[in-house]
Amino acid sequence: MTDRLTLYGSFTSSSTYKPMLYLALSGLPFSFRTVNLKNGVQREAPYLSVNRYGQVPALRHRGLTIVQSNVILDYLARTTGHFEGATEQERWTAREWLSWEADAITNVAKVRHFSRFRQVDSAVMEHFRPPAEAALSFVDTALEGRDWLVGNVCTIADIGCWGRMVFMAEGGLDINRWPRLLAWSERIKAMPGFALPYDLIPKKDAELGSTAPLTA
Ligand SMILES: N[C@@H](CCC(=O)N[C@@H](CS)C(=O)NCC(=O)O)C(=O)O
After folding, report:
1. How far is the CA of 191 from the centre of ligand 1 (A)?
2. Could you identify the atom of ligand 1 that is nearest to the CA of residue 57?
3. Ligand 1, residues at Cβ distance < 6 Å
4. Burial class (CB in 10 A: 0-12, 13-18, 19+), 35
5. Can you give the pLDDT at residue 212?
6. Is residue 50 very low, low, confident or very high in pLDDT (cuts 50, 70, 90)?
7. Pick among 1.20.1050.10, 3.30.1490.20, 3.40.630.10, 1.10.10.10: CATH of 88-189
């Protein structure tokens, strides 16, 4: 049983970016295993034995297999202590944000997906754009008078919500429309270890990270 974290993911995936960003900001060493979504590797038996949903990301650690990006963030925060809420209430509130983002910020990812990877009828965009904009407005309002979504420091709530919306410009969603959200993204970008997805997620398998200890 290995103590080294192994993350399966893909270069263009916001769901992959979320745990990748977590690991980069934490300075944790890990192995990256690329899953080529374009070639359909996610639907082949070897990968389906890792993630039954045929999606990235997936995390393997200490004999466990963890899938769904927000469950991975939850696991990493519990296991390593990095970006965990400071109090029990904050820990629950951070997970509440992650559950909400899977319902709401997912629409931002859909707008980007249909803009970048598919030719779809305009009705599809008309369906997804209003809830995507509403989700961004909701985060913008929640950030009024505060630096972070939960408590006084960056938590998995910030990493999960930002990570899912990171490609918003590719969907024609201009972050300048949401000034508090913009300022929050700048705070995240100023953190040591930060990188944008195309600079962070390798196209090939890689051994990454420093020699930081697993526990914060
Ligand atoms: N709820 C999942 C969503 C994962 C997801 O949608 N992954 C996409 C890439 S961002 C994927 O693997 N798509 C490949 C496919 O569906 O064939 C999570 O948060 O992990």
Report:
1. 26
2. 20
3. 13-15, 37, 42, 54-57, 68-70
4. buried
5. 62
6. very high
7. 1.20.1050.10
